[in-house]
Design a protein that fits this description.
Elements lengths: L4 E7 L5 H12 L4 E4 L7 E8 L14 E9 L1 E3 L8 E4 L2 H5 L3 H9 L3 E5 L8 E2 L2 E2 H6 L9 E15 L3 E9 L5 H11 L4 E11 L2 E2 L14 H8 L2 E3 L2 H8 L8 E10 L2 E9 L3 E5 L3
Parallel strand pairs: 3-12, 14-15
Antiparallel strand pairs: 1-3, 2-3, 4-11, 4-12, 5-6, 7-10, 8-9, 10-11, 12-13, 15-16, 16-17
Length: about 280
Protein backbone atom coordinates (compact mmCIF):
# COMPACT_ATOMS: atom_id res chain seq x y z
CA UNK A 1 0.00 0.00 0.00
CA UNK A 2 1.32 3.49 -0.82
CA UNK A 3 2.23 5.65 2.16
CA UNK A 4 -0.09 8.46 3.26
CA UNK A 5 0.76 11.12 5.82
CA UNK A 6 3.50 13.62 6.61
CA UNK A 7 7.24 13.01 6.71
CA UNK A 8 9.56 15.31 8.64
CA UNK A 9 12.96 15.57 6.95
CA UNK A 10 16.17 17.20 8.16
CA UNK A 11 17.34 18.67 4.85
CA UNK A 12 21.10 18.52 4.33
CA UNK A 13 23.10 21.41 2.87
CA UNK A 14 23.49 21.33 -0.90
CA UNK A 15 20.04 19.86 -1.53
CA UNK A 16 17.19 21.89 -2.97
CA UNK A 17 13.73 21.23 -1.56
CA UNK A 18 12.89 19.69 -4.95
CA UNK A 19 15.88 17.32 -4.60
CA UNK A 20 14.47 16.08 -1.29
CA UNK A 21 11.03 15.50 -2.83
CA UNK A 22 12.56 13.63 -5.77
CA UNK A 23 14.62 11.34 -3.52
CA UNK A 24 11.66 10.67 -1.22
CA UNK A 25 9.61 9.48 -4.18
CA UNK A 26 12.17 6.72 -4.60
CA UNK A 27 12.52 5.92 -0.90
CA UNK A 28 8.77 5.77 -0.27
CA UNK A 29 7.92 4.35 -3.72
CA UNK A 30 5.22 6.90 -4.50
CA UNK A 31 5.01 9.78 -6.96
CA UNK A 32 2.64 11.84 -4.85
CA UNK A 33 5.02 13.85 -2.66
CA UNK A 34 5.02 17.60 -1.98
CA UNK A 35 6.55 20.00 0.55
CA UNK A 36 5.27 22.91 2.64
CA UNK A 37 7.71 25.80 2.32
CA UNK A 38 11.06 25.71 0.54
CA UNK A 39 14.54 26.00 2.03
CA UNK A 40 17.54 27.45 0.18
CA UNK A 41 20.06 24.82 -0.99
CA UNK A 42 22.66 26.01 1.55
CA UNK A 43 20.13 26.05 4.40
CA UNK A 44 19.49 22.96 6.51
CA UNK A 45 16.72 21.81 8.79
CA UNK A 46 13.06 20.96 8.83
CA UNK A 47 11.12 20.24 5.66
CA UNK A 48 7.51 19.16 6.15
CA UNK A 49 6.65 16.73 3.34
CA UNK A 50 3.17 15.56 2.38
CA UNK A 51 3.05 11.96 1.13
CA UNK A 52 0.11 10.47 -0.79
CA UNK A 53 -3.08 11.96 0.62
CA UNK A 54 -0.89 13.87 3.04
CA UNK A 55 -0.21 16.34 0.22
CA UNK A 56 -3.77 17.60 0.81
CA UNK A 57 -2.75 18.67 4.31
CA UNK A 58 -0.09 21.06 2.98
CA UNK A 59 -2.70 23.77 2.30
CA UNK A 60 -3.52 23.88 6.02
CA UNK A 61 0.08 24.73 6.92
CA UNK A 62 -0.07 28.00 5.02
CA UNK A 63 0.57 30.92 7.34
CA UNK A 64 1.89 28.95 10.32
CA UNK A 65 4.74 30.33 12.44
CA UNK A 66 8.25 29.13 11.58
CA UNK A 67 11.40 29.06 13.69
CA UNK A 68 15.03 29.36 12.63
CA UNK A 69 18.52 29.18 14.08
CA UNK A 70 20.78 31.48 12.09
CA UNK A 71 24.27 32.97 11.95
CA UNK A 72 24.80 36.62 11.02
CA UNK A 73 27.88 38.63 10.00
CA UNK A 74 27.77 42.42 10.22
CA UNK A 75 30.18 44.74 8.45
CA UNK A 76 29.84 43.37 4.94
CA UNK A 77 26.96 43.47 2.44
CA UNK A 78 26.63 40.94 -0.40
CA UNK A 79 24.61 40.69 -3.61
CA UNK A 80 22.55 37.80 -2.24
CA UNK A 81 22.34 38.88 1.43
CA UNK A 82 24.17 35.66 2.31
CA UNK A 83 27.70 34.28 2.17
CA UNK A 84 27.27 32.90 -1.37
CA UNK A 85 27.01 36.32 -3.00
CA UNK A 86 29.66 38.76 -4.15
CA UNK A 87 30.75 41.40 -1.65
CA UNK A 88 29.11 44.73 -2.41
CA UNK A 89 30.64 46.79 0.36
CA UNK A 90 32.79 46.34 3.44
CA UNK A 91 32.34 48.79 6.30
CA UNK A 92 35.26 50.81 7.57
CA UNK A 93 37.06 49.23 10.52
CA UNK A 94 36.41 52.31 12.68
CA UNK A 95 32.64 51.99 12.16
CA UNK A 96 32.65 48.34 13.18
CA UNK A 97 34.81 49.07 16.24
CA UNK A 98 32.54 51.95 17.28
CA UNK A 99 29.68 49.54 17.98
CA UNK A 100 29.38 47.48 21.15
CA UNK A 101 27.31 44.42 22.04
CA UNK A 102 24.67 46.49 23.84
CA UNK A 103 24.04 48.62 20.74
CA UNK A 104 23.77 45.57 18.52
CA UNK A 105 21.38 43.82 20.93
CA UNK A 106 19.17 46.92 21.18
CA UNK A 107 18.98 47.14 17.38
CA UNK A 108 18.18 43.45 16.98
CA UNK A 109 15.39 43.68 19.56
CA UNK A 110 13.76 46.49 17.58
CA UNK A 111 12.96 43.96 14.87
CA UNK A 112 10.45 42.21 17.15
CA UNK A 113 6.80 42.66 16.14
CA UNK A 114 4.94 43.55 12.95
CA UNK A 115 6.93 45.30 10.26
CA UNK A 116 7.36 45.72 6.51
CA UNK A 117 10.18 43.75 4.90
CA UNK A 118 11.62 43.97 1.40
CA UNK A 119 12.47 40.42 0.23
CA UNK A 120 15.96 39.64 -1.05
CA UNK A 121 16.37 39.73 -4.81
CA UNK A 122 17.47 36.09 -4.82
CA UNK A 123 14.50 34.91 -2.76
CA UNK A 124 11.74 32.54 -3.86
CA UNK A 125 9.27 35.46 -3.87
CA UNK A 126 7.15 35.17 -7.02
CA UNK A 127 6.81 37.99 -9.53
CA UNK A 128 4.51 37.37 -12.46
CA UNK A 129 4.63 33.63 -11.85
CA UNK A 130 8.44 33.44 -11.69
CA UNK A 131 10.66 33.33 -8.60
CA UNK A 132 12.86 36.35 -8.00
CA UNK A 133 16.08 34.32 -8.11
CA UNK A 134 15.07 32.92 -11.53
CA UNK A 135 14.68 36.46 -12.88
CA UNK A 136 18.10 37.38 -11.46
CA UNK A 137 19.67 34.40 -13.26
CA UNK A 138 18.00 35.51 -16.51
CA UNK A 139 19.39 39.02 -16.06
CA UNK A 140 15.95 40.60 -16.04
CA UNK A 141 15.06 43.83 -14.27
CA UNK A 142 12.22 43.74 -11.75
CA UNK A 143 10.90 45.45 -8.65
CA UNK A 144 10.03 43.66 -5.41
CA UNK A 145 7.11 44.80 -3.28
CA UNK A 146 7.58 45.04 0.50
CA UNK A 147 5.41 42.67 2.54
CA UNK A 148 4.12 42.80 6.09
CA UNK A 149 5.72 40.21 8.35
CA UNK A 150 5.81 39.56 12.08
CA UNK A 151 8.69 38.42 14.26
CA UNK A 152 7.40 37.01 17.53
CA UNK A 153 10.77 36.24 19.12
CA UNK A 154 14.36 37.10 18.30
CA UNK A 155 17.22 36.08 20.62
CA UNK A 156 20.90 36.97 20.11
CA UNK A 157 23.73 34.78 21.44
CA UNK A 158 27.45 34.07 20.90
CA UNK A 159 28.35 37.68 20.15
CA UNK A 160 31.89 38.09 18.74
CA UNK A 161 33.63 41.26 17.61
CA UNK A 162 36.82 41.31 15.57
CA UNK A 163 37.34 42.20 11.94
CA UNK A 164 33.53 41.87 11.68
CA UNK A 165 30.71 41.44 14.17
CA UNK A 166 29.25 37.92 14.28
CA UNK A 167 26.47 36.36 16.34
CA UNK A 168 23.74 33.73 16.33
CA UNK A 169 20.01 34.41 16.28
CA UNK A 170 16.98 32.31 17.16
CA UNK A 171 13.92 33.65 15.35
CA UNK A 172 10.20 32.82 15.50
CA UNK A 173 8.43 34.53 12.62
CA UNK A 174 5.39 34.61 10.38
CA UNK A 175 5.29 32.70 7.13
CA UNK A 176 6.76 34.83 4.35
CA UNK A 177 9.61 36.22 6.44
CA UNK A 178 13.00 36.13 4.72
CA UNK A 179 15.77 35.57 7.25
CA UNK A 180 18.55 36.68 4.90
CA UNK A 181 16.66 39.97 4.48
CA UNK A 182 16.50 40.25 8.28
CA UNK A 183 20.31 39.92 8.50
CA UNK A 184 20.68 42.56 5.78
CA UNK A 185 18.28 44.95 7.52
CA UNK A 186 19.97 44.60 10.93
CA UNK A 187 23.30 45.50 9.32
CA UNK A 188 21.77 48.44 7.47
CA UNK A 189 20.10 49.72 10.66
CA UNK A 190 23.56 49.80 12.30
CA UNK A 191 25.09 51.50 9.25
CA UNK A 192 27.62 48.77 8.45
CA UNK A 193 25.72 46.28 6.27
CA UNK A 194 25.32 42.59 6.98
CA UNK A 195 24.50 39.19 5.61
CA UNK A 196 23.51 35.67 6.60
CA UNK A 197 26.24 33.05 7.04
CA UNK A 198 24.14 30.07 8.14
CA UNK A 199 20.48 29.05 8.38
CA UNK A 200 18.70 26.08 9.97
CA UNK A 201 14.92 25.77 10.23
CA UNK A 202 13.84 24.23 13.53
CA UNK A 203 10.02 24.40 13.52
CA UNK A 204 7.07 24.69 11.14
CA UNK A 205 3.92 25.25 13.17
CA UNK A 206 3.94 22.51 15.81
CA UNK A 207 6.23 20.24 13.75
CA UNK A 208 9.76 20.15 15.16
CA UNK A 209 13.19 19.33 13.81
CA UNK A 210 13.61 17.08 16.88
CA UNK A 211 11.25 14.59 15.21
CA UNK A 212 12.84 14.76 11.75
CA UNK A 213 14.94 12.06 10.07
CA UNK A 214 17.28 11.91 7.13
CA UNK A 215 15.80 11.15 3.70
CA UNK A 216 16.64 7.45 3.66
CA UNK A 217 15.06 6.88 7.09
CA UNK A 218 11.80 8.68 6.31
CA UNK A 219 8.68 7.12 7.84
CA UNK A 220 5.57 9.28 7.37
CA UNK A 221 3.39 9.80 10.42
CA UNK A 222 -0.22 8.78 9.86
CA UNK A 223 -2.84 11.16 8.49
CA UNK A 224 -4.55 11.25 11.87
CA UNK A 225 -1.37 11.93 13.87
CA UNK A 226 -0.31 14.62 11.42
CA UNK A 227 -3.69 16.35 11.51
CA UNK A 228 -3.65 16.42 15.32
CA UNK A 229 -0.53 18.59 15.09
CA UNK A 230 -2.15 21.00 12.63
CA UNK A 231 -5.66 21.53 14.00
CA UNK A 232 -8.24 20.31 16.55
CA UNK A 233 -10.08 17.08 15.73
CA UNK A 234 -13.64 15.89 16.33
CA UNK A 235 -14.97 12.33 16.45
CA UNK A 236 -17.83 11.53 14.05
CA UNK A 237 -20.67 9.05 14.44
CA UNK A 238 -21.23 6.46 11.70
CA UNK A 239 -23.95 8.55 10.04
CA UNK A 240 -21.98 11.81 10.34
CA UNK A 241 -18.89 10.18 8.81
CA UNK A 242 -21.01 8.85 5.94
CA UNK A 243 -22.57 12.27 5.25
CA UNK A 244 -19.23 14.07 5.37
CA UNK A 245 -17.73 11.45 3.02
CA UNK A 246 -20.38 12.40 0.46
CA UNK A 247 -19.58 16.10 0.85
CA UNK A 248 -22.62 16.99 2.96
CA UNK A 249 -22.38 19.69 5.63
CA UNK A 250 -23.22 18.77 9.23
CA UNK A 251 -25.53 20.80 11.45
CA UNK A 252 -22.83 21.13 14.11
CA UNK A 253 -21.62 24.54 15.28
CA UNK A 254 -17.90 25.05 15.86
CA UNK A 255 -15.75 28.11 16.66
CA UNK A 256 -12.72 26.52 14.94
CA UNK A 257 -11.59 27.77 11.55
CA UNK A 258 -10.71 24.21 10.53
CA UNK A 259 -11.45 20.89 12.19
CA UNK A 260 -10.22 17.37 11.43
CA UNK A 261 -13.19 15.02 11.36
CA UNK A 262 -12.33 11.53 12.55
CA UNK A 263 -14.14 8.19 12.58
CA UNK A 264 -12.32 5.59 14.66
CA UNK A 265 -8.66 5.76 13.65
CA UNK A 266 -9.42 7.26 10.23
CA UNK A 267 -9.31 10.89 9.13
CA UNK A 268 -12.50 11.39 7.13
CA UNK A 269 -12.28 15.08 6.19
CA UNK A 270 -11.15 18.58 7.01
CA UNK A 271 -14.11 20.89 7.61
CA UNK A 272 -14.47 24.62 8.15
CA UNK A 273 -16.29 25.70 11.30
CA UNK A 274 -19.03 28.22 11.95
CA UNK A 275 -22.76 27.60 12.20
CA UNK A 276 -22.19 24.22 10.59
CA UNK A 277 -19.30 21.97 9.60
CA UNK A 278 -18.70 22.22 5.85
CA UNK A 279 -16.26 19.72 4.30
CA UNK A 280 -13.28 21.34 2.57
CA UNK A 281 -11.15 18.27 1.92
CA UNK A 282 -12.47 14.71 1.93
CA UNK A 283 -10.07 11.76 2.25
CA UNK A 284 -10.54 8.40 0.58
CA UNK A 285 -9.84 5.10 2.33
Amino acid sequence: MPANGIALIDKPAGFTSHDVVAKLRGVLKTKKVGHAGTLDPDATGLLVIGVGQGTKLMNYLSGVTKSYSTNVLLGQATTTDDAQGEVLETAEKSLIESLDEQQVRATVERFTGKQVQLPSRVSAKKIGGKKAYELVREGKEFELEPAEIEIGRIVLSNFKQGEFIEFDLEVDCSSGTFIRALARDIGNALGIGGHLTGLRRTKVGSFSLDDATDIQSAEPMTMLDATKQIMPIKEMTDSEARDISFGRALAIESPERFLGLVHGDRLVAIASGGERLSPKTVFND
